[in-house]
Amino acid sequence: MSLPKFMIFFPSSLRFGLSEAAKSFALGLRECARPRLALVSVVAALVSLLLWLTVFVTWWEELVQLALVGLVVLAVVFAPAAPLAGSVVAMGSFASVAAPVGLVAVAAGVLKYVVVAAAFAVLVLVTMRLVVEWWLMPRIQQACLERYPALRQKVDASWHGGLRNVLGAWALFLVGGTICLLIPFVGAVLLFLLANYLNARSLVNDALDGIANDVERRKAISENRVATTAVGVMVAGFTLIPFAGLLAPVLLGAAMCHLSMRTVMRVREQTGSAAAATGSASVSALRSAV
């Protein structure tokens, strides 16, 4: 899959990352055409949706009141920092004496429903995400491996390597998310990108389970930051497509499998080429010495 011509002005690393993301996304769409994976994905999405729909319908009034309490707490916490941060949102909070009481009441009435809707969407996506990681990924990995027969050989990885990747992702979420929340306007966009990056990145360990060592897994993370973010954003957009969005669990898992496996293949080719070049140089040196 080729990128638009105007991207020739982008840095090469950015172009490569976006190209890898586009190829992996396209390969992920192909995996969605497998009837068994598609059926499991639709069932997982529907179960997640119905589960939280039942919860929110049953406790609707309580959740709305909880959202209102949360807004009040946030206003009390962040309003004192409004003059320093220059945040329009904070300056218009409940603690701002300059804001008309009526306007604040209307804003609170609208925002509490927005918060509830956002919480519903997040919980559905998180549930789908957990289903993908705990149930679907082994099936998706086996389907994707058909395109990479060289990776079928069993490779062991240490448990502490996987733990390091998980803790690193959580640390990035806590630190990076906090920083994004402190940046007015642009912070929301950065938080969106960070969330999609971490949502996709957290599947790397499962995508490479049993087929890559610790070094290759770290390479799959460090060399694909742009590509991983792009895959997460594209899948997030795909979920907005009616009915087709039910295939998002399989699409995300398959796209990350292909992206990670392609990276491992590339790393092994580079390592093999370097080893071959080193061996040739050693032979030449020995011949010269003789």
UniProtKB/TrEMBL annotation:
It comes from the Bacteria. This is Etoposide-induced protein 2.4 (EI24). The keyword Membrane applies. It is a multi-pass membrane protein. It is found in: Membrane. The keyword Nuclease does not apply. The chain crosses the membrane at residues 37-57, 63-81, 113-132, 169-195, 233-259. Its main location: membrane. Keywords: Membrane, Transmembrane, Transmembrane helix. Pfam families: EI24.
